[in-house]
């Protein structure tokens, strides 16, 4: 592959030069090399191919020199034709080599991307829920994708540039010096006049490019936010289309201005580069021509020297920026490693036991024993470098749950009631071990959840959450997510039990109808019944139900209620109740206030005692009761 002066390495200028000052630790380098290890054979072939290509590129001008001096000047047709043929063959071989080296480097690069992506995915999905509640998923995904691509470049294009350019420079300089050291030195005199402005332009273009990326990202952000359903809805209700358009136009206008500026600077840079190279060529022709007339040089040498000059300036400029390139790739790598280094705060012990065994023996009781809990802060679960794009909130170092104790005997139902924000959903998060308690213990079948395998816990506890989420997939697949081996008949039965079979049957493709974000839209009540069906299919021994706070219409309400009756019978259940009908069915009611258990008993007992429950009854349940009755 030959480097021409007309194509400076523009990509490198999109990078931030400050990364060049970044320090990498030896440990990071070692870990980076670990990723390269599976590819070391192919990397060696890659480097060898690049070296051969660089050598082939450097030989051609020498051949031209011989063609002119030994062939044309000497009047030897044989030599002229032979060398011309060799040059042609060399060109074809070089082309073949470029394809081969791209093939090898693509294998390495894409393979590395695959490795990094798989490893990152595997690691991130094991992170505790707290991680996802902090990091903006979009920003996280975007950053990881960008970093993975950047990291891969350390081993492909950056390696190629370094090897190819440095070898070309060595070969070309050696060849030039061997022909005429005086002319070589003279033509290099122009170099400083060339490298220093190039570096200045590089810096300038890098800054402009970064700014244009930021402006573009802002414009995209506006579109993203306004064009999703929730945003569009908000604009339609409160917004002013004219104001929206105007502010978008202003943003896009800034993108236009910076685009023009960038085009201009890049052109100045390229034109300057070509001009300087041309001037250098003119100098060599001028001085070399005079020397040739005086018989100090042959015509072939003059031609070869000018050809070499053309091959020298491109690689020299590229190498003057190579440090930024290398460091950018390595820093991307480092940021991927940083994600892989995050310790999951909720991890499975190596000697974790199977919860199902304990359950057989002791029955599926659920027990909260003096549980206190505080949601982890950003410093505990997030990445420092991600915080710039993450949701930054004021740190609340306050307990969400305080000394909470209650027991749900096997097969019983306990209702959790309390004001909004009392900590009800938080309790469900602890029983499913999305988090570990800060103090105290959560036990199922007498076993601390920190001592059981996550798979057995998942098999034991089923949740229908406040906002039932469905993946963009068919109803059948959404249900099978809880139990991959479920047959269609079992799915139909679960839908039946959840009182949603009729609705599903009326959909165009039945259980194969695609639902979720971009699919068929289900109402809140329908979604919740599907979530109940999903849970029924799994048939867990412990059920946690977070009732939807939003009021359902009476038809939907009755259907959900019937589905729940079916779902809860015979199971140990914790129901976060917002409806009187549910509360009444409970064997016991736990009243929460500000993260503390303030009372516990049956509906009649609690009502007689007054206090928080009586107040909740008046404000929440009684009004809901008329709907639910
Ligand atoms: N991921 C989180 N990080 C930090 N604080 C949280 C988090 N989730 C909830 N909280 C806080 O914990 C407290 C209890 O929240 P929780 O969701 O348990 O309330 P709730 O009783 O379920 O309320 P509701 O009836 O409105 O659903 C609230 O003050 C809430 O702001
Ligand atoms: Mg809640």
TrEMBL record:
GO cellular component: plasma membrane
Family annotation (PANTHER family): ATP-BINDING CASSETTE SUB-FAMILY B MEMBER 10, MITOCHONDRIAL, ATP-DEPENDENT PERMEASE MDL1, MITOCHONDRIAL
Predominant subcellular localization, coarse grouping: membrane
GO molecular function: ABC-type oligopeptide transporter activity; ATP binding; ATP hydrolysis activity
Transmembrane portions of the chain: 43-64, 79-100, 162-179, 185-202, 263-285
Taxonomic path: Bacteria, Bacillati, Actinomycetota, Actinomycetes, Micrococcales
Organism superkingdom: Bacteria
Protein name: ABC transporter
Pfam families per UniProt: ABC_membrane, ABC_tran
């Amino acid at each position: 592959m030959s480097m021409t002066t007309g194509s400076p390495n523009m990509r490198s200028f999109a990078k931030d030069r400050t990364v060049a000052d970044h320090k990498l630790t030896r440990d990071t380098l070692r870990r980076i090399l670990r990723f390269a290890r599976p590819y070391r054979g192919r990397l060696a072939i890659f480097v060898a191919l690049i070296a051969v290509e660089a050598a082939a590129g450097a030989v051609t001008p020498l051949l031209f020199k011989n063609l002119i001096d030994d062939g044309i000047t000497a009047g030897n047709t044989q030599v002229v034709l032979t060398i011309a043929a060799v040059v042609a063959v060399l060109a074809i071989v070089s082309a073949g080599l470029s394809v081969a080296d791209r093939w090898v480097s693509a294998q390495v690069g894409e393979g590395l991307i695959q490795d990094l992506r798989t490893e990152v995915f595997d690691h991130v999905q094991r992170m505790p829920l707290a991680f996802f509640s902090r990091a903006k998923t979009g920003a996280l995904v975007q950053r990881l994708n960008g970093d993975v691509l950047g990291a891969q470049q350390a081993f492909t294009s950056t390696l190629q540039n370094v090897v190819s350019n440095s070898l070309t420079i060595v070969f070309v300089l050696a060849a030039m010096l061997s022909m005429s050291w005086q002319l070589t030195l003279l033509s290099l005199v122009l170099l400083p006049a060339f490298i220093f402005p190039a570096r200045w332009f590089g810096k300038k273009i890098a800054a402009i490019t970064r700014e244009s990326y930021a402006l573009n990202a802002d414009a995209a952000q506006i579109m993203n936010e306004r064009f999703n359903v929730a945003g569009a809805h908000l604009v339609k209700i409160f917004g002013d289309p004219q104001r929206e358009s105007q502010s978008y136009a202003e943003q896009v206008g800034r993108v236009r201005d910076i685009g023009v500026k960038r085009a201009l600077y890049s052109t100045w840079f390229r034109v300057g580069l070509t001009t300087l190279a041309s001037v250098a060529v003119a100098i060599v022709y001028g001085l070399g021509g005079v020397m040739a007339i005086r018989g100090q040089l042959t015509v072939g040498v003059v031609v070869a020297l000018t050809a070499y000059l053309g091959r020298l300036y491109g690689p020299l400029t590229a190498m003057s920026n190579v440090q930024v390139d290398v460091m950018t790739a390595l820093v991307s790598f480092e940021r991927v490693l940083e994600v892989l280094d995050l310790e999951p705060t909720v991890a499975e012990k190596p000697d974790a036991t199977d919860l199902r065994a304990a359950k057989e023996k002791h029955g599926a009781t659920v027990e909260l024993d003096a549980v206190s809990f505080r949601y982890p802060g950003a410093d505990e679960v997030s990445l420092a470098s991600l915080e710039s794009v993450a949701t930054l909130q004021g740190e609340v170092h306050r307990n969400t749950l305080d000394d909470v104790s209650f027991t749900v005997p096997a097969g019983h139902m306990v209702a959790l009631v309390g004001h909004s924000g009392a900590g009800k959903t938080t309790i469900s998060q602890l029983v499913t071990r999305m988090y570990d308690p800060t103090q105290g213990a959560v036990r199922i079948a007498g076993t601390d959840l920190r001592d059981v395998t996550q798979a057995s816990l998942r098999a034991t506890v089923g949740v229908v959450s406040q906002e039932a989420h469905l993946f963009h997939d068919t109803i059948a697949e959404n249900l099978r997510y809880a139990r991959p081996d479920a047959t269609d008949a079992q799915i139909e039965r679960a839908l039946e039990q959840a009182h949603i079979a009729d609705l599903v049957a009326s959909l165009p493709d039945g259980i194969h109808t695609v639902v979720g974000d971009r699919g068929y839209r289900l109402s809140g009540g329908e979604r919740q019944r599907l979530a109940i069906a999903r849970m029924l299919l799994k048939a867990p021994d412990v059920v946690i139900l977070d009732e939807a706070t939003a009021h359902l219409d009476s038809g939907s309400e009755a259907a959900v209620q019937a589905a729940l009756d079916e779902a809860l019978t015979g199971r140990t259940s914790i129901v976060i109740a917002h409806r009187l009908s549910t509360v009444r069915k409970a064997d016991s009611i736990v009243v929460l206030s500000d993260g503390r258990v303030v009372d516990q008993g049956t509906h009649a007992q609690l009502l007689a005692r007054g206090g928080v429950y009586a107040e909740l009854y008046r404000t929440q349940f009684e009004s809901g009761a008329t709907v639910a009755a």
